[in-house]
Amino acid sequence: MANQIGTFDTPGDTPARPPRPPRPPRSPRPAPLPAVLGFTCLNSLGTGAVQMGIFFLLRSAYGFGRRENYLFGLVLYGVYVIGALAAGPMMNRLRAVGLSTRIVLAAVLVAQAAASFIPGGVARLGGTQIPPQWTVWLAAIGYGVFTGIMWPIVESYLSGGRSGKALNAATGRFNVLWSGAVLASFWLMAPLVEQRPIDVITALGVVQIASAGLLVKFGPNPAKHLPHQHEPHPESWKNLLSAFRVLLPLAYIVAGTLSPLLPTTLDQIGIREAWAPPVASAWLTSRVVVFFIFERWPGWHGRRWVPVLAGGLLLFGFAGTVIAPRLGPAALPVLIGTLTLFGAGHAMIYLGALYYALEVGRAEVNAGGVHEALIGLGYALGPAIGLVLILLGTSGPNFDSWLILVVSVVSVLAGLRTLRILHGRRNVHTNFLE
Asked: Which of 29, 98, 278, 325 could potentially form a cystine with 268 if both were Cys, beta carbons 3.0 to 4.6 Å apart?
């Protein structure tokens, strides 16, 4: 007879096997990676053309200068932030009434396409090649807010049901593909910038509709992360996560300040409108290269020199790009070189913030939301800085000096905060440059 604790009290009996521990719940099947990456690639063409390349199109179509481009960037990035922050609460409410994430994502694509068709549609109805300015403002608001909603959903399909090496590999490929597609968008739009800039915006809607075909491979809802999937990490990585969370909004503040300025900067150097996007893509090229290298080289994990180097490259690259028009014959090579450094620093910061958010912050409910919110903060503040400087009357010959000064002050404050964090706890690495 077995007693109540599972042993046997009869001499001839053998001890009972201890009960097996309960198995962790089976993970839902993640979305097929090729489908997610294909969807990402197509939609990143639109992201690149609108969020970064739109300023070249506006300068060609309407003659936008610094003031107009900074104001447009503030609106575009501002509504993007609104969309990104609304994505989570909106999905919770829609799922509560029975709508799947996939259906919502399909509706978002339709809304983006409709926004893209507004300028071209109005131009055709009016029999003109260039539509009224209000059409591109309306298109930017619609496209921007729904882009902010779209990417958190896509990222949830990417990460859902994946952990450890599988998650890192998927994230690495995701970063290389979206950044490569943004780079491609700059080259693809180049032949149309001078003569048919509005057609570029219209083409985005076609891409959105085409990408909807890949949604049949997605599940109705993303797979969930489960507690048993979390893996141990060095305690010192919490410091690195905090450091990169300081640098992440800085990287997007600088990018948001630089992107609306580049069309004017390249015009001052004498670059034709058709060649402006390819030249400006120097920083996008170096970003893709860094993404590719860091995906395959794990040696940067846990190293405190990475955020320090990244911050230095970011600031030096920005300053060199802004002052390049003053350098005469050396302006173009200096601009390309400093844009390349800027892109490398930007990529290192983005990867560091994302990697440690996944590795350290996965146990936090809002880890992904914090990452997106910090990007959105930088996106909104970047053009705001440039616009405020112009409104204060610094838009003359010394505008670049004022811009570098303000961004440098912000960067120094962020850098001091980063160094303080990195010199805090030293649980694993004893050498700062280890």
From this structure: 325
Structure-block tokens of residue 190: 């180049």
**pTM summary value:** 0.82
Q: Tell me the domain boundaries of the chain.
A: 30-221, 233-434
Collect all residues with Cβ–Cβ distance below 8 Å to 10 and sequence separation of at least 6: 1
Fold identical between 30-221 and 233-434?
A: yes
Q: In sequence order, which residues have a C-beta less than 8 Å from that of residue 145 and are 6 or more positions away?
A: 79, 80, 82, 83
User: In 3D, which of 258, 282, 352 has the Cα closest to residue 310?
Assistant: 352
pLDDT in tens, 129-184: 899 999 999 999 999 899 888 988 888 888 888 877 787 788 889 999 999 999 99
Of 79, 87, 90, 91, give the one whose Cα is nearest residue 50: 79
- SS3 string, 132-175, reads CHHHHHHHHHHHHHHHHHHHHHHHHHHHCCCCHHHHHHHHHHHH
CA distances from 260 to 36, 95, 137, 144, 256 (A): 30, 38, 15, 16, 7
CA atoms 110, 111, 117, 121: torsion sign: positive
30-221 CATH pick, 1.20.1250.20, 1.20.1050.10, 2.40.50.100, 3.40.390.30: 1.20.1250.20
Whole-number pLDDT of residue 86: 85
Architecture of domain 233-434: Up-down Bundle (1.20)
Backbone angles phi, psi at 265, to 5 degrees: -60, -45
